Amino acid sequence: MWHPHNIVIKNLFSHSYSELNFITGQMVLILGEVTDEAGSDSNGAGKSAIIEGITLAVTGDVWRGIGKENFIKYNERSCVVIMKLNNDVLKETMIIERTIFNSTASSKLRIYINDEEITDLPTLNDGNKFILDRLGISKEDFLNYYVIGQGNNKSFFSAGDAKQKEIISRFSNFHNIDKICDQIDDKINKLNSGSIPSLELSVRQLDGHIDTLEIRIKDKIENFEIAKQEQLIRIKETIAICDRNKSNLQVKIDDDKISIQNRSSKIDALKLKIDGVEEIQQELKKVEKRCKFIRVELLDVRQMQSTLKVQSGMIIQCPKCKNEFIPESDLTVKEVKESLPVVEENIRLYESEEKDWDVHMDEIKVQLQQIKENQSRINVLQNEINSYQNLSEEYQKQIGEIKDQKNYLLLDIAKNSKSSVDKDLIDLKSKLRIQIEERIGQRKQLNELQKELEDLKFYQFHFSRQGFKTYLANKSIKTIQDICNYYLKRFQTNLQVDISGFKILKSGEVRDKIEISILKNGIKKGVFNQYSGGQKSRVDICGIIAINRLINNTVEPGKGLDLLAIDEIGDLDASGKFEIVKILEKSDITNLLVMHEVGDLPCKNKIYVVYKSGHSIITEKR
């Protein structure tokens, strides 16, 4: 079990720096004093801050649920809580160090086990979970049964009905029973929805198959020859269909051969018409070359004609000598006049030759176009021949399949003629025997599953509220009652509790109303809520101790927390507070009690929290 060793708080509420050492198995009474205000009581001294520091260390939050701007000391940037715990069983120490910043910065958490820091905790939540897992308790347990604040009394007796049942469920290990019940329910559902209906359906189907086989065996005996002849007729009809299909396919193959021959003849005729295509193409190239040459020559003479005409229009006559000349020209007037008719004749000759060659080139192109069309017709005919050939191959394949089918049918005729009623009966009776054996096996399996279902329903009833769960609940109630009465007796009170648990009525229903009565000097004096606040507080403290001890006794070996921190107990007069102090001093629990001082409280371990000059400090004396 983990035992708290000490706690250090820095800048928490009004504490700048305070350290408290726990005393294992004993109570430390925390009292307070405010010296800054004359006549003031201990409120505001900073007593509760110690309890808050413990809560902050373990859970990462204060139990009052206030923001960090309200619990970090005024004008300070951060607060720090350091708590050390020892575990003699596990041979471990754990140090929890938290730093909370008065800004948007994230809180820091450092955890040391045997002085070695745990570094594989990526988030703050991971660290919080690590601490509680190490202690073996939940955050709710810690806040309800280890740290009790003002108005935060969560004992079994003060809790509501739902909370009481939740506590009972926890210590009854209902979750384990519920797991078993869930497994039983799951198996029942699977049997009801899967295995049993499936087997029932399979048995019914086998019944149908067996009935059918028995009828067929009877029919075989009575109508064997008729069935044999009918089957023979059906086979022969199928063979006749095969023969017709084969003949039809052969006709198609013959028709395709004729079509192929016709197209082959046309291809041969067309091939004759495309002979000499290379020579014609060569001739076309020559003609195109000649036409190109003529066009170039014609262009030159036409340009020469244009130049001569321009120069003839520029002839000038000298007024004195009457001679004619052309300004800025290398030609004489005579040369221009003589050259112009020659050039014009050449143009006429070139134009005539160009026309003749163009006609010849068109004739060649017509020949090539006809050759191209014939080649295209040859390609079309060849594609049609290929299609007919492919169809013929497919028809041949189908004829082969028909031949195979016919051969199988002929074998069936041979088998049919040799078959006898005994052979068919042997086959049917063999199938019948197999089906009957399978039905016997499945009926046996079905009976086993139905027996399993009955057993599961038995367990389902007796493990549910009507059975074992009620037994466990009453056992937990009895345990809580006995532990509480043990402490009430040990603390020398004259009070005892009597808790009525669950009861199974004649109708089979469970009456789960929990009623708590108080006995005084062994005599029942009424239900719990009839008593005064002081008397209920005494019982409540024992109830808290009982649940605290139960939690520690039910965790994993070596885990649990030896701690009970209580911040004020209301509804108590001076004598009541004396009794509570005596109770806690005898509890053998490491505990802290924050209280207003009333007279000379009988406690050997006292500390004082003194508030002075704006700071709270812990001291053993005032």
Written overview of the protein:
It is a single chain. With 622 residues, the protein is an alpha+beta fold. Helix content is 59%, strand content 16%. It is built from twelve helices and 19 strands. It has a six-stranded antiparallel β-sheet, with helices on one face. A six-stranded mixed β-sheet has the order 8-16-17-3-18-19. A hairpin with a 2-residue loop joins β14 and β15. α4 runs antiparallel to α11 and α6 runs antiparallel to α9. The longest helix has 100 residues. The chain is flat. The two termini are 34 Å apart.
Category from helices, strands and their pairing: alpha+beta
Specify the biggest β-sheet: 6 strands, antiparallel
Which segments are poorly predicted (pLDDT under 50) over 5 or more consecutive residues? none
Widest β-sheet, arrangement of strands = 2-1-4-5-6-7
Shape: flat
Distance between the termini: 34 Å
Estimate the mean pLDDT confidence: 83
Q: Helical segment tally?
A: 12
Radius of gyration: 58 Å
Amount of beta strand = 15-25%
Tell me how many strands there are: 19
Helix % is 55-70%
